[in-house]
Amino acid sequence: MAFLLCLPAFVFLLAIIAYPILYALYLSFHEVDLSALNTGDMPFVGLANFQALLRDGVFWAALRNTVVFTAVSVAGEVLFGLAIALVINEKSIKLSAVSRALILLPWAVPPIVNGLMWGFIYSPSYGYLNVILYRLGIIKEFMQFLGNADIALYMVSIPYIWRTTPFAALLFHAALQGIPEELYEAAKVDGANARERLWGITLPLLRPTFTVLLVLRTGFAFMVFDEIFAMTQGGPGNATWVAAWYTYSQSFRYVEIGMGAASAYVLAIMIAAVAVVYIRLLYARVEYA
């Protein structure tokens, strides 16, 4: 009876998750181009797609950009999310319901809308960022934030951090609520100041939350696509090509489906490897005496 009750959900998951994953693996070992989609003739090529992938300089550039983007965005999310959570959790600071809603608002913005909105903010012709910096005297002429290959990737990471930081703040805030107040009271009696309580109590007890957050946000940052699509489409040049954009381009712009599937699997393996490293280095079960 238990198996029968779970069977519909099991079949549904097979249809929408397992089948596409296995079919993508099948495609990664075959030559699949536009003609193959028409005829259904997909020759088996073994590891040729993976070998071509590793010889492609654009792939390595996209991989390097992905690592930089992930490092910048995850660090920003964690730092800003923790800071917001500590502020919200502080009993001496009273926030209204409106203020709490505004903190969470970016998380409700769809990624593609977020990219379009920040594209207007960055506009070299009428963007508010240029206007503000110009009127403050910081710049003498409007800048090409997304047209400058040296800073474009970092400028794209800012909207991503803005959108995803509320998720980190929620996780940290929930974890902070679970830390017994008695630990802080005992530390105060022992003469510990606020910094010592932060480093000696709060941060060690947040290690499981750090692990969960790093695994989730690193995985999603590795797969960033929407902001890239809406703001730069990989430009200027290859400056904002990331792994997900490379996979999309190979599959749907150049119609090299086999190469795109191989790229997707390399990306998935990298995400899994990073997750394992995080868990081994950071995860610790927290028990309160």
Can you give a write-up of this model?
By secondary structure, the protein is an all-alpha fold. It has one domain: MetI-like fold, CATH 1.10.3720. Helix content is about 75%, strand content about 0%. The longest helix has about 35 residues. It starts with a helix and ends in a 7-residue tail after the last helix. The model has no long low-confidence stretch (mean pLDDT about 90).
Provide a brief overview of the structure.
The chain is mainly alpha-helical and 289 residues long. It has helices at residues 2-28, 34-39, 48-55, 57-89, 97-108, 111-121, 128-135, 152-177, 181-189, 194-205, 207-222, 226-231, 243-253, 257-282.
Please indicate the count of domains. 1
Largest sheet: none
Sum up the overall morphology in one term: globular
Mean pLDDT: 90
Alpha-carbon Rg, integer? 23 Å
CATH class: Mainly Alpha
Q: Give the DSSP E fraction (strand runs of 2 or more residues).
A: under 5%
- Write down the CATH topology: MetI-like fold
CATH superfamily heading: MetI-like
What's the CATH architecture name?
A: Orthogonal Bundle
User: Helix-strand pattern, N to C?
Assistant: HHHHHHHHHHHHHH
Helix content: over 70%
Q: Whole-Å distance between the termini?
A: 41 Å
